[in-house]
Amino acid sequence: MTGLVRASVPAPGPPAAGDPAPDFTLRHTFDDDVNLRATLRRGPVALAFYVFDFGHV
Fold it and tell me: How far, in Å, CA of 34 to CA of 20, rounded?
């Protein structure tokens, strides 16, 4: 079963507009991570997700 991920609980439905995002940490640079909760302390945050932003599509 390589490459498969199984959840122990069912995933919730998609978020509605205006729902708070769960806290997460993402790599910003090779040496720096960005955490949503820490960034929110400085003010509002807008999240945008780009599919294939750096791809050849």
Answer: 17
Q: Give the Cα separation of 21 and 15 in Å (integer).
A: 8
Phi and psi at residue 38, to the nearest 5°? -65, -40
pTM tops 0.70, yes or no: no
Q: Which run of H or of E encompasses 33? A: strand 33-35
**Could you tell me the end-to-end alpha-carbon distance of the chain, in angstroms, rounded to an integer?**
30
DSSP tag of 40: H
Query: CA-CA distance, 52 to 56, in Å (whole number)?
Result: 8
Give the residue, 1 or 55, on which the prediction is more confident: 55
